[in-house]
Amino acid sequence: MAESKLDARLTPARPDLAAKHLEGQVSATRFVEGEVFEVSSGVAPMRREPFSGAMQETEALKGERVTIYDRTEEGWAWGQLHGDGYVGWLPDIALYRPAAEPTHKVTALRTFAFPGPSIKLPPTETLSLGARLAVVREDATFAVTQEGWYVPRRHVAALGAVETNFVSVAERFVGTPYLWGGRSSLGIDCSGLVQTALAACGIQAPRDSDMQEAALGRPLPLTEQTRLQRGDLLFWKGHVAIARDAGSIVHANAYHMATAIEPTQEAIARIAAAGSALTTIKRLGQTAPAAARG
User: Does the keyword Isomerase apply (predicted)?
Assistant: First the structure.
């Protein structure tokens, strides 16, 4: 049956409810169209179940769109992110109906949104790399958003602006705490680091490491003769790292509980000793579109 082949992480379907477009593909008591909302907070957790103690599957950043199919009286909303298709429960309070299309994105590792044109004011929100904003005007050194937030102008760029080297973006996260399901500079996991760094270069990537292993790049031989290049991706079961050069990697990992740089062979040996052998090395093609941010 086709239903068994669908990835539950990317399929808005439960026994009691499913997205209308899945009718005929999955079994559910009822099918609904869903409503589009936008993430209003800086970072919103997407959880496996609708309560605050449930496992965090991923995070949604400010400005991301999500189609919501269900809500609970306790303040949780179940839906699917438009960016990478992930499905889960978000806090309802973190969502609002879109008022304007995003025009800009945060390009700093993190920044603050202020309620007025002064950095001495208490920040209204913390924004992370990749957050999307609808900027309505500029005011001196600030970009003013539709909410009336004042964001340092040097920390944002037009949506079409891209970085030129995703490895350099990943290296900026060194020291960021490890967080399962994290996608921000406040906390990030291994596949979140890869996805976020590639996104900064205008390259869309799946959310989880197994999805990335299947979708990204071309495989290289797993031999000692294989010389790693900057930007190669190394995969283990449940983990991914980025090659910085022939001898070192950068990765968000639970061993260091942070994004860290370490010698490649030491990492391979350490992870193998913990019971997981290297499964794949992937080499990406062009790592950034031709247009680049100046």
Answer: no
- DSSP β-ladder status, 76-81 and 87-91: antiparallel
Residues 166, 64, 10, CA angle at the centre, nearest 5°?
Answer: 85
If you classify domain 13-96 with CATH, what class do you get?
mainly beta
Residue 243: CB partners within 8 Å, gap ≥ 6? Answer: 167, 228, 229, 230, 231, 232, 233, 234, 249, 264
**Residue 202 tokens, joined:** 């205008």
All CATH 2.30.30.40 domain ranges in the chain, comma separated? 13-96
CATH C-level class of 166-283: alpha beta
- The DSSP bridge pattern shows strands 30-32 and 17-19 to be parallel
Helix locations, the chain, DSSP H:
166-171, 190-200, 209-215, 264-273
Report pLDDT for 261: 98
Q: What is the mean pLDDT of the chain?
A: 94
Read off the pTM: 0.93
